[in-house]
Design a protein that fits this description.
The complex is a heterodimer of chains A (158) and B (58).
Chain A lengths: L10 E5 L10 H5 L2 E2 L4 E14 L10 E15 L6 H5 L5 E7 L15 E14 L9 E7 L5 E5 L3
Antiparallel strand pairs in A: 1-2, 1-5, 3-4, 4-7, 5-6, 6-7, 6-8
Chain B lengths: L4 E5 L5 E5 L3 H5 L4 E2 L25
Antiparallel strand pairs in B: 1-2, 1-3
Classes of the chains: A mainly beta (158), B mainly beta (58).
């Protein structure tokens, strides 16, 4: 066990389809657009809601589990030669982000059969350029809806 | 505001709908655009042939 940073570890690809949310195939991974070289930051998080259930017989405010939801936002670089991230993620693009936080066992940290990944089904709701300013690299932000419950412990099938 | 989408297919037979402007990115990853049968142009109407019989004007 060791602590690590995402640089040279994390791999992120965008697939137009997957065989199963909790078991994308190695072929699905092979036909993704690899967005790792363009990725600056990633916010893929699920959140649960609680429902307050206080009652008159107690000063303690109880709660029960309610609904849960997820958000997915990411920042990428623009590139005037190979603008792959920008071209792949216009508004209304639908697909699946396959995220290997610790990196896969394939070449360049690509996930291979048996590797654990997260699969986030998304639809891009906005693709926004960051404000341009002097001496600052050009980037953009993608915000997505998450139309299905993400698979946070998926395993790549053969 | 509607977004034009096209169907793409990879060598494993997987199909997916993608935004039309992203096709270049997918083609670079081994996907090809599937021709939309419904958008194929209708067969050209048969050419009207002139009647071979009947009065011929001099």
């Amino acid at each position: 066990m060791s602590r690590l940073i995402p640089n040279e570890n994390t791999w992120v690809g965008f697939a137009p389809t997957v065989a199963a949310l909790d078991a994308p195939t190695a072929a699905n991974v092979a036909s993704t657009v690899n967005l790792t070289p363009f990725l600056i930051s990633l916010n893929a998080s699920a959140r649960g809601n609680t429902v307050p259930t206080p009652s008159f017989d107690s000063l303690f405010e109880t709660s029960i589990a309610g609904t849960n939801t997820a958000t997915f936002d990411a920042d990428f670089y623009r590139d005037d030669v190979n603008d792959l991230a920008w071209e792949t993620l216009p508004r209304a693009a639908e697909g699946y982000f396959i995220v290997s936080r610790f990196g896969g066992t394939g070449a360049n940290n690509t996930p291979a059969a048996g590797d654990e990944v997260e699969v986030w089904p998304v639809m891009v709701v906005s693709r926004t350029m960051a404000n341009m300013s002097n001496n600052t690299v050009m980037t953009f932000t993608v915000s997505c809806s998450v139309p299905q419950e993400p698979a946070e412990t998926a395993t790549i099938a053969a | 505001m509607s977004v034009e989408k096209v169907t793409i297919r990879n060598e494993n037979g997987d199909e997916a709908q993608v935004v039309a402007t992203t096709v270049k990115a997918w083609e670079a990853n081994g996907w090809t655009v599937v021709e939309d049968e419904s958008k194929r142009s209708a067969p050209a109407p048969q050419r009207q042939t002139r009647p071979t019989s009947g009065p011929v004007e001099e």
